[in-house]
Design goal:
Tetrahydropterin Synthase, Chain A; six-stranded mixed beta sheet; binds zinc ion; alpha/beta
Length: about 140
């Protein structure tokens, strides 16, 4: 099995609804995302001969996704009142509404699924919400 690994990061705010502790309050992280792809064989011809994939394509895919979330407020749908969302957007803040609780585990799955949809042979995604705490999603 051959593999590649790349990483990117983004800064964003979030809070965890229904959580009893510090994370229920609005706070931010520098989220570090590490993605892995795996493949049984290497490319046979062209620019990807003897490669799993062109590294540039892999890096660009991950960076495109982290750029979508960077410097936005990650909000689980339904956890803020509609008038709160309207007010925040009226102030010019950029919200990213997500259909799941904004845990590192769910964000790892979000990255995994988006990269899979792009046809990448993703095998694992790690999301660090602090330098020492990491959640992993793999299929
Ligand atoms: Zn947090």
């Amino acid at each position: 099995m051959y593999g590649l690994k790349t990483e990117s990061s983004f800064d964003s705010a979030h809070f965890l609804a229904d959580y009893h502790g510090k994370c229920e309050n609005l706070h931010g992280h520098r989220w570090r995302v590490v993605a892995y792809i795996e493949q049984d064989s290497l490319g046979e011809s062209g620019t990807e001969r003897d490669m799993v994939l062109d590294f540039g394509e892999f890096k660009a895919a991950l960076r495109g996704l982290t750029a979508r979330l960077d410097h936005t407020f990650l909000v689980e749908e339904g956890t803020l009142r509609p008038e709160t969302v309207t007010c925040l957007e009226g102030e010019g803040f950029t919200l990213t509404m997500l259909p799941f609780r904004t845990t590192a585990e769910n964000l790892a799955r979000w990255f995994f699924d988006r990269m899979s949809e792009q046809g990448l042979p993703v095998s694992q995604v790690d999301v660090y919400e602090t330098p020492l705490n990491c959640a992993t999603y793999r299929r």
